[in-house]
Specification:
Layout lengths: L2 E6 L3 H12 L4 E7 L2 H8 L6 E5 L7 H5 L7 E6 L5 H6 L4 E4 L4 H16 L16 E6 L2 E6 L3 E7 L2 E6 L2 E5 L3 H5 L6 E5 L2 E4 L5 E2 L3 E4 L2 E4 L2 H13 L3
Parallel strand pairs: 1-2, 1-3, 3-4, 4-5
Antiparallel strand pairs: 6-7, 8-9, 8-12, 9-10, 11-12, 13-14, 14-15
Length: 237
């Protein structure tokens, strides 16, 4: 599931930093950056936004006032340079409150809370089975359509217009883009490099630069390093 989000901040540098952070998170979809609260309000209601990164000190309507006007299901992460607004922000049922300057690790912690909230099912509403509940998928390989079990898929290796699926049974090649596959994979699959997506359940060990899945050594890309470290930290004891 993609979480649709917007950024509302009248400081261009602060907004740009958040935009960069959002771009690193596979499950976030940035739908807009606004420097004025009134423009944000007009667009949020029409686009079914799930999450808003909301500065408090805004011209016109401030962030706390804007929060009171948002649809009830919209998640809010407040961003501000002033700690004295913390109590007021939590009265607006904010998921988190980030003090500027915002580090990526702190940002990652906040959006993990948001993701956890969206992961909690509403038992009163029947839903179709999601990718996370499915145990397999079908994909065209050559002239055949082949069933692949998620638990058997160790990692995916991309190469231009096609990918290699490395499973416990062997390696299969198919004509798909990495992005197409990434959008349909369960949460146990994490992109760690421009050319690699790994199944965390098959990782044997990790060092500073590589992931090891049995005898295979997979590089960790600089862009994905912090995200991957945060995911592993959340699974560590």
């Amino acid at each position: 599931m993609k979480i649709k989000c917007v950024i509302v901040d009248d400081e261009p540098n602060a907004a740009k930093l958040l935009e960069d952070y959002v771009s690193r998170i596979p499950f976030l979809e940035l739908c807009g950056v606004y420097f004025e609260s009134e423009k944000a309000l007009l667009n949020i209601g029409h686009n079914n936004i799930d999450l808003i990164f909301l500065d408090i000190n805004l011209p016109g309507l401030n962030g706390l006032e804007l929060a009171s006007m948002l649809p009830p299901n919209t998640k809010i992460i407040f961003t501000t340079a002033y700690s004295e607004y913390a109590v007021d922000s939590y009265e607006k049922n904010a998921v988190d409150y980030l003090l500027k300057p915002i580090s990526f690790n702190r940002f990652l912690s906040a959006i993990t809370k948001v993701k956890d909230q969206f992961a909690q099912p509403d038992s009163s509403v029947p839903t179709l089975q999601s990718e996370d509940q499915q145990d397999s998928f079908f994909i065209k390989i050559g002239y055949e359509t082949v069933k692949i079990n998620f638990r058997d898929l160790k990692y995916i290796e991309g190469s231009r217009e096609y990918v290699f699926l490395h499973t416990i049974q062997g390696k299969q090649m198919c004509y798909k883009r990495m992005k197409e596959l990434a959008e349909r994979l369960p949460e146990s699959f994490v992109r760690v490099h421009h050319s690699f997506i790994v199944n965390i359940n098959h990782i044997s060990k990790i060092d500073a630069l590589h992931i090891f899945i049995q005898e295979d050594k997979i590089p960790i890309g600089t862009t994905y390093k912090d995200i991957f470290a945060g995911i592993i930290k959340n699974r560590s004891i």
